[in-house]
Design a protein that fits this description.
Blueprint (H helix, E strand, L loop, with lengths): L1 H4 L4 E6 L12 E13 L4 H12 L3 E5 L4 H4 L15 E13 L2 E6 L4 H10 L14 E2 L3 H16 L5 E10 L6 H11 L4 E7 L2 E7 L2 E6 L2 E5 L1 E6 L5 H12 L2 H19 L8 E10 L3 E11 L6 H8 L7 E2 L1 H11 L10 E5 L5 E4 L4 E5 L4 E10 L5 H18 L3
Antiparallel strand pairs: 1-2, 1-8, 2-4, 3-4, 3-16, 4-5, 6-7, 7-15, 7-19, 8-9, 9-18, 10-11, 10-17, 11-14, 12-14, 13-14, 16-17, 18-19
Length: 409
């Protein structure tokens, strides 16, 4: 499917890698060839999105960039952006392919279904492998990162915030890659349930995200924030089990997770019916190839009159990628991080014709602009007053490990 899809200048492939999570609607879904597009870096982005949804009454695929924060709050983004995704982009595809329970469903507008199926099944996957040796640079030295974390802890001590998600960028400004090859390698190394291959002309998102930002199914909203990470030990079963238990009982990770759950509950309460917001699961421990993650599930009910754009605006950016309180930590993120987040810590996903939706959190992801050869990935961690800066730095490296590996194979 992907080899066939990659011929189109705009495509979006969402894959759950057969995790078969209860809240997943599809195993994977692919949208190609834009019949109509919406892109903006200006004002009224959410109103424009709602107008686009209402006008088309169709599948809409696309992304929300982190810097939409400037429309939600009185904020600015002054740091450099070298990947250059729009703050918001959505498209109505000509063709939608859905894989569900070993059944391929094809939705197509201007072609015969049979011809699409024949083209998909006759496409021969590429077998060539381009060896990569991408030198990875960092915006922070280890000492500079530690010093910045300590400065952020002084803000926490003064009462400016309780927790802040601080991120650092790794990059190469002259990278030549085959994005599809790199995505496949990343998926093999780190198959995660909210993975995404997303192409917009010469810009690419190669995403191995484990985290859901927001799903709407009928009147039900569900958000699943992640806070808490520990490395797996796949070679030693007992050590792996002990790592899982260490995360489960970590007072630091549990307090971080609870703080973000409270923030998500508050966000959902802005649009959900009174009394309907609840925590379905608190601090569940989930296994992924490289790490264990602590994940909570928060849900609520919305009235039919609540618009999709209003839901997104009330809950974006997701609390797991900001901290609390949201506005103040976003000011500090702008002050202390050294490049613009852009699509990183934003969301990619779809809105269905029924105005249901499902969006991931763009983490564990490579962003690539083939025009200027700029490749970027960012990692971060939650900083609290009790954080040990050296440990937070090591957590960033742990989250970057799979990406670094596939860029040097």
């Amino acid at each position: 499917m992907l080899d066939w899809a990659n011929q189109f200048s705009i495509c979006c492939f969402l894959d759950d890698h057969q995790y078969r999570l209860r809240e997943h609607r599809f195993e994977c879904i692919l949208a190609v060839n834009a019949e109509s597009v919406l892109h903006t870096t200006g004002d009224r982005a959410f109103e424009q999105l709602q107008g686009f949804i209402d006008k088309n009454s169709d599948w809409c695929f696309g992304h929300l960039g982190y810097d939409l924060k400037n429309e939600i709050e009185t904020l600015q983004s002054n740091n450099a952006d070298f990947v250059q995704f729009d703050d918001l982009f959505f498209f109505v595809p000509e063709i939608v392919l859905i894989l569900r329970s070993n059944e391929l469903l094809i939705g197509v507008k201007s072609r015969e279904h049979a011809s699409v199926a024949a083209a998909v099944f006759s496409t021969v996957p590429a077998t060539t492998h381009q060896p990569l040796q991408i030198e990875i640079k960092s915006r922070f030295t280890r000492d500079a990162y530690i010093d910045t974390v300590q400065q952020l802890q002084q803000h926490i001590l003064r009462g400016d915030c309780y927790e802040i998600n601080f991120c650092q960028e790794f990059y190469n400004d002259n990278a030549v890659i085959d994005p599809l090859q790199v995505y496949r390698a990343l998926s093999k190394e780190s198959p995660n349930p909210f993975s995404c291959y997303y192409r917009l002309e010469e810009k690419y998102l190669l995403c191995a995200s484990p985290e859901r930002y927001l799903r709407k199914s009928g009147s039900r909203l569900i958000s699943q924030p992640i806070k808490g990470t520990i490395q797996r030990n796949n070679k030693r079963t007992e050590s792996d089990r002990l790592n899982r238990e260490t995360l489960q009982h970590s007072s630091k990770d549990r307090s971080e997770n609870i703080m973000i759950v409270d923030l998500v509950r508050n966000d959902l309460a802005k649009v959900c019916t009174e009394g309907s917001v609840k925590v379905d699961e608190l601090m569940g421990i989930y296994a992924f190839p490289q790490v264990y993650q602590m994940i909570s599930t928060v849900s609520g009910e919305v009235a039919d009159t609540v618009r999709v754009a209003d839901i997104l605006k009330a809950t974006f950016p997701m609390g797991s990628m900001t901290g609390a309180p949201k506005k103040r930590v976003m000011e500090l993120i702008e002050q202390y991080e050294r490049t613009r987040r852009g699509l990183f810590s934003g969301a990619a996903g779809y809105i269905s014709p029924e105005q249901d939706m499902d969006f991931n959190v763009v983490i564990r992801s490579i962003l690539y602009n083939a025009s200027n050869r700029y490749l970027s990935f960012q990692t971060g961690s939650a900083i609290t007053y009790y954080s040990r800066a050296e440990d937070e730095y090591e957590e960033c490296l742990l989250k970057a490990a799979a990406i670094k590996k596939v860029l040097n194979t």
